[in-house]
Amino acid sequence: MISKLILLIILLPLLSALFTHLLAGKLGRCVARISVAATLLSVIFSGVLLWLSLSGHLVGQSISISPWTILYFDSLSILMAFVIGLISLIVHIYSLRYMAEEEGYARFFMLLDLMTASLLLMVAAGDLITLIIAWHFVGVFLYFLLGQDTRNPSAYRYAFWTLITYRIGDLPLVLAAVLLFQAYGTWSLPVIFEQLNQAPHAHSVFGMALPEVVGILLALAAFARSAQFLLHTWLPYTMDGPTPVSALMHAGIVNAGGFLINRFSPVFANTSDVLQWVFIVGFISAVIGSILMLVQNDIKKSLGYSTMGQMGFMIMECGIGAFSLAIYHLIAHGVFKGTLFLSAGSVIHSARKDDGVPKDELYTFVVEKRTAKTHKPWLLMTAITLLMPLAILIFSHWLVAEDYFQKQGAIILLFFGWITGAQLIFATYRTHAQKLWRLVGISILSFTVVIIGYVFISHAFDVYLYPDAAFREKLFAAASIEKVRFDILMVFIALSIIIGWLIAYYSERNRNGKHPRYTGRLWTMFYALISRELYMTDLYSLLTRTILSSANKLNIWLRWN
Amino acid sequence: MPDILLLLAGLFLPLFPLSMVFNAVFNRLQHVVLRCILLIGWPHIGLTIIHSTDTVVPTWVIAWGLATSLFYALRMLALRGVGQWNSFLATSMWSILWITTTDANQNMHHLYTFAITAPLLLLAFLSAGLEKRFGAAYTGLYGGLALSIPRFAGVLVVVILAAIATPLFPGFFIMLKLILDTSTTLPAATLALLTVWLLWSWAGVRLLQGLIVGSASQGEATDLNLFSCWGYVIAIIALILSGIYLSGGLL
């Protein structure tokens, strides 16, 4: 019975795609209802599985059709299948009316179904070949979904960027799969993980431990899919596609990197340096994504960079060993960003008539990016920013676990989490900062939210996704760094915050005065750099043009033979 | 293997610059059936020559084959003619088959070769179809096929995806098999294969975009009739099934 349910979850969107295509001529636009009904059923079935899994009646079910066609439904697959199905259903329903005036209505729903099936297959893949196939198809179907409007060459241009970045990311995954097969002689993921856990360092590749090499390759594949720095340029530019596709992409597809790292957690648990690099790449992406988001004047592009920043944060969470928290993050971000995208159209539409936003201090800060003209208790803010994480640590030590200080990853995460939250609270409420008690009250409230959020949500996801406490410890251990390096990192972060506050403080004090010439020039250069998106797109365009022109010259010299 | 036989084999399992002969011949031929015969027969002649000598192919020849494959995959990026694209892809694909010649099972070599070439036969027919409808099979010249002849465009998309070794088609499993064979013994060859695969995807997408994207500005062009369309669909299903079947032997 459960096996049939599992098969149906994936088969329903596939069958729907087939019937949507075949019956489009007869049913016209009503054909989309087949697609919605199939997705709804798929969500219901995955909901049933999730309920069974949560209640402990279902623990890891696998269906083996052939040596390389295995479906594996563990807690991660079940949770992800439900989330993907739900987001896809919302996008389907939204598209019923949104796409009604567009050409290729039936084709759109067919592609949406194929995309849903690919995503479901990806999360349910129990072997490496199925995973590669699903992983590859996600890129292919996304390309055609983004290019839904076949009249629009610009949409296809940026869809191509997406596809080629995804293909670049496919290749390390293929290589990782091949290396795992060479070592263990099977494509089956559960078997590979079992053997890996029994003897983690039994195999090596070119003098390096196998988990290390495979971990690097998998991380590269995840970076391409989750728009990490250097492989991110496709994300903010794929806005010419239909809004429902943007919603699906930002809410579901781009999160695949986090899923991949979680799926291969037994590999990462046996690495020594990979997760630290994952953290660094995630950190750079989070910072750059957030900076670039601030200079955008296009709502969808701004959301694109915001997604890059969020994905950076998600990858950072993996990098510190908080794998299950990354899954929570990708789900929360998916729901949040999906809602933003689906409402972006109506926001733009109503803003054309009247923006309707009260021009209060919050508006001037968030929209006009101007700070309020009130005097702020800088010292208090700085103290809270630095002291609060410490308070959280002490509180967590008392509340959560005795060994909390040993979980370096948790400490870093809390530090970042707090700073991000604190910056937002201070920035949002800075106008009322003269009411010190209010500020302190809000800070304490946010502190409580962080504690509750971290402790309960993290614990719930940890227990559900990784019930083995020893394995969770192993993940944290794999992500940990030497004490000296950790201390240096913490000092560096603290200094960055202090310098940031100082810069903000002095720029605020000199708001009406003249800036020294050198700082003014520095700021202009910095703004030019980020407004040109660090010249990354220009660089890639130049590279592409050079390759194409070289190919053309070669063809001319060789008379096209 | 005697050098003369090696050179002869390099003409049919193309090694640059001998590969230029195949491309010149293919582009001279105008009739689609002749092109298909050439596509089917040419690489098998090379394989037969290699098998007749019964000796091991030297590693430097495999490297030469990979370099040829990379070279043609790169040059495909700048092509606009569908026929020429087809012949370059054939060259790029066949030249990597030198890797398979290290395998003992000679029948499998022929099977790989046929499986990897099969989508190119369909593409040859589609190219002829474009020439018949528009006078030339050329990207960027008319475009907008998705709107003007949607059925034809749909088939074209799937056939190009099959040609560039997209999953479930035979090319995908053969590429996987080649990567599997070289990953531990010839890592440089593995990287070359992955790069070739990436370049095929890039070239394929450029070809597609030049044909299917844009407004349907041309005059009346007839779409594929249902009979032909189902013919292509059956051929594509056969390709997928053969890919899956083939994978059983490969993986």
Itemize the secondary structure elements and their pairings:
The complex is a heterodimer of chains A (561) and B (251).
Chain A: H1 2-27, H2 32-54, E1 61-66, E2 69-73, H3 75-98, H4 105-124, H5 128-146, H6 153-184, H7 189-198, E3 204-205, E4 208-209, H8 210-225, H9 234-237, H10 243-251, H11 256-263, H12 265-268, H13 274-294, H14 299-319, H15 323-353, H16 361-366, H17 378-399, H18 408-429, H19 436-465, H20 469-479, H21 483-509, H22 517-531, H23 536-557
Antiparallel strand pairs in A: 1-2, 3-4
Helix pairs in contact in A: 1-2, 1-4, 2-3, 3-4, 3-10, 3-15, 4-5, 5-6, 6-8, 8-11, 8-13, 10-15, 11-14, 11-15, 13-14, 14-15, 15-19, 17-18, 17-19, 17-21, 18-19
Chain B: H1 3-12, H2 19-28, H3 32-53, H4 59-76, H5 82-96, H6 106-134, H7 145-148, H8 150-163, H9 170-182, H10 187-212, H11 226-250
Helix pairs in contact in B: 1-3, 2-5, 3-6, 4-5, 4-10, 5-6, 5-10, 6-8, 6-11, 8-10, 8-11, 9-10, 9-11
Q: Brief description of this entry?
A:
The complex is a heterodimer of chains A (561) and B (251). Chain A is mostly helical.
What does it look like?
The complex is a heterodimer of chains A (561) and B (251). Chain A is built from 23 helices and four strands. By secondary structure, chain A is mainly α. In chain A, β1 and β2 form a beta hairpin. In chain A, α15 packs across α19 and α17 packs parallel to α19. The mean pLDDT of chain A is 84. By secondary structure, chain B is mostly helical. Chain B has one domain. The model of chain B has no long low-confidence stretch (mean pLDDT 91). The interface between A and B is large, with 45 and 43 residues.
Based on helices, strands and strand pairing, what is the structural class of chain B? Answer: mainly alpha
Q: Got a strand count of chain A?
A: 4
Strand content of chain A: under 5%
Gyration radius of chain B, rounded: 18 Å
Low-confidence stretches of chain B: none
Q: How many angstroms separate the termini of chain B? A: 30 Å
- Domain unit count of chain B: 1
The biggest beta sheet of chain A is recorded as: 2 strands, antiparallel
Order of helix and strand elements from N to C terminus of chain B = HHHHHHHHHHH
Q: Classify the beta-strand content of chain B into a percent band.
A: under 5%
Query: Greatest chain-chain interface?
Result: A-B, 45 and 43 residues
Principal-axis shape of chain A equals globular
Order of helices and strands of chain A: HHEEHHHHHEEHHHHHHHHHHHHHHHH
Query: Which strand order spans the largest sheet of chain A, edge to edge or round the barrel?
Result: 1-2
Helical proportion of chain B, percent range? over 70%
